[in-house]
Design brief:
This protein has one domain. The chain has 2 helices and 5 strands; from the N terminus they run βββββαα. It has a 5-stranded antiparallel beta sheet with strand order 1-2-3-4-5, covered by helices on one side. The longest helix is centred in the last third of the chain and has 13 residues. The two termini are about 15 Å apart.
Length: about 80
């Protein structure tokens, strides 16, 4: 199960169940995917096929929704 936290344009922001404990978010679109750490700072972990411009846009979206993403992480992984 991978709960969607946020959708924006063609991007889907989500978590994978049973993955590493460090707080992060995955992003997919029809043409690419990426993973960003969100703690202690928002930082790209890996990228597959997103352009530099798209990565900047995605990072900005994450930063603007950081509180919501962290809250969703805590709620989902509370166990």
């Amino acid at each position: 199960m991978s709960p969607t936290v946020l959708k924006y344009k063609s991007y889907r922001f989500f978590f994978f169940s049973r993955e590493e404990k460090r707080v992060h978010i995955h992003v997919t679109a029809p043409h690419g995917e990426a993973k960003f750490w969100i703690a202690p700072l928002v930082a790209l972990e890996h990228n597959y096929r997103f352009s530099s411009r798209e990565l900047r846009e995605i990072q900005k979206i994450i930063e603007e929704n950081l509180h919501e993403i962290k809250s969703a992480w805590k709620k989902y992984f509370k166990s």
